[in-house]
From TrEMBL:
Pfam families: DPRP (PF04244). This is Deoxyribodipyrimidine photo-lyase. Residues 149-182 are annotated as: Disordered. Residues 156-170 have a biased composition (Basic and acidic residues).
Length: 491
């Protein structure tokens, strides 16, 4: 029966590791209904359709490629038995489990299995990522030496990877890999233009040249380019931000990985090989590996582990709606240089690296008390690498602290001093990072104290915030700060 089964691959399962053999028959479905469900970033929609159509073209007669309104319509035209690797969302997983004639296999595309995670998590009071990361290193044999010891003697070199950006405002590195568009991209662009003109779909963000890999060959070229030219500088500057260089030394491979074009294990292996051959320092290889088999796998597993209700968590009772300027990526109406710059990057390319996401976008949303589910949905729609499983614990838990500390030890809230230290944004800003009152009051500095004042009782038991909470009583102008920030329309 297995030989007769055709492998149904979703649009985020496009790499060879989702097939059991090279000549396995494949089913690919392009569902128009998917793009109507949410108001996605235009470049995200383009990348997804481009990758799907490129995969169909590569496979040729090996694949049945159906363009229909819904998945169910397409499946009604397929009479042979199907198998599918476990989908990446609960809705899709429930859908495939309810289908007759479809064998659902374990999920692929991650470094560790769900069974391995649950075995690690069983009986633990705390599920901190660092502990899981060390276990994942051992399970995968990544950056470990004899007796499962960490290569170089330390599991985590994060303390060595917190350097601020260079003072001259640039990293002397080649730019990231850029693919070249082809006739498939032209077709996708024309189809999206027509669908938008007909009112069938609506997008946020701007169209632009495709910046991310849509094929396995492009993804491998991008990985090789990163390891050769950019990985060495990734470690020290992975937390730094520059207004003129949104990519910094980051790989920009998350979109390709989340489309299934790359396997995280092969990316981690490439980084480890570069270190063992003396081409990159350990702190850069380890920092990158931690993102892949630590953070990424952890987000995947906790999405399933915590269950459906986790996405509705709201421990801080944040209920404000996202303002229109944020929802529409209206970067030009924002005066705060950091937020304007990062929002512009999202508008123009549907991507920015993890520190602007966490400490500029997420930090601002946390301080303002925006509803965490709405923030999570915004990240899902507006980023080319955004998927439900990525954003659940990453935004709900880590960024917005809506789970009350199930995966982090304190909220990722910070004032302007942090942004000033780790970026060049404050140099040309109308606001001053040290000011919390007056016309030049930094929205992040003042917003930080408003956040603490608003949540003082809810955070009272958090020992990491105890010194800051005690300082609330020493701020003479706290009432003024709170009133001003509560009424601020836009930064």
């Amino acid at each position: 029966m297995a030989d007769a089964e055709r492998r149904w691959c979703f649009a985020d399962q496009l790499g060879p590791h989702f097939l059991d053999r090279g000549d396995q028959p494949v089913l690919l479905i392009e569902s128009r209904a998917v793009l109507r469900r949410r108001r996605f970033h235009r470049q995200k929609a383009h990348l997804l359709l481009s990758a799907l159509r490129h995969r169909a073209a590569e496979l040729g007669e090996q694949a049945v490629f159906l363009r229909t309104d819904t998945y169910r319509q397409a499946l009604g035209r397929v009479k042979e038995p199907l198998s599918v690797c476990g989908p990446t969302s609960r809705a899709a997983a429930a859908f495939v489990r309810g289908l007759d004639g479809v064998t659902v296999l374990p999920s692929r595309g991650f470094a560790t299995s769900r069974e391995e995670f649950e075995e690690w998590a069983g009986g633990r009071d705390s599920l901190l990522m660092e502990s899981f990361y060390r276990r994942a290193r051992v399970l995968t044999g990544t950056l470990v030496d004899g007796d499962d010891a960490p290569a170089g003697g330390k599991w985590n070199l994060d303390k060595e990877n917190r350097e601020p950006p260079p003072r001259d405002g640039r990293l002397p590195l080649p730019g990231p890999y850029r693919p070249e568009e082809d006739e498939i991209d032209e077709e996708v662009r024309a189809d999206l233009d027509a669908a938008e003109a007909d009112g069938e779909v609506s997008f946020v963000g701007r169209d632009g040249p495709r910046r991310f890999p849509a094929t396995r060959a492009e993804a491998l070229a991008a990985l090789a380019h990163f390891v050769e030219h950019r990985l060495a500088d990734f470690g020290p500057y992975e937390d730094a931000m520059l207004s003129g260089d949104p990519a910094m030394s980051h790989s920009l491979l998350s979109a390709a990985m989340n489309l299934g074009l790359l396997d995280p294990v092969e990316c981690a292996a490439a980084a480890e090989t570069a270190w063992r051959e003396g081409r990159v320092p350990l702190r850069s290889a380890e920092g990158y590996v931690r993102q892949l088999i630590g953070w990424r796998d952890y987000m995947w597993h906790t999405y399933w582990h915590f269950g459906r209700a986790y996405a509705r968590s709201n421990a801080l009772r944040a209920r404000r709606r996202l303002p229109q300027w944020f929802a529409e990526l209206d970067a030009d109406s924002v005066r705060a240089h950091c937020l304007s710059s990062v929002l512009r990057d999202v508008r123009d390319q549907g991507w920015t690296h993890h520190i602007p996401r966490l400490m500029v976008l997420g930090n601002y949303a946390l301080q303002r008390g925006w509803h965490p589910a709405a923030v999570s949905d915004w990240f899902h729609r507006c980023f080319v690498d955004g998927y439900e499983w990525v954003m659940a614990t990453n935004v709900i838990g880590m960024s917005q602290y809506a789970d009350g500390g199930r995966i982090t030890t304190k909220p990722y809230a910070a004032g302007g001093a942090y942004i000033n230290r780790m970026s060049d944004f404050c140099q040309d800003c109308v606001y001053r990072p040290k000011s919390r009152t007056g016309d030049d009051a930094c929205p992040y500095t003042a917003g930080y104290w408003w956040f603490l004042a608003r949540n003082e009782e809810r955070l009272a038991d958090n020992w990491r915030l105890a010194p800051q909470l005690r300082n609330l009583d020493r701020i003479d102008d706290l009432d003024e700060v709170v009133a001003r920030e509560r009424n601020r329309k836009r930064p």
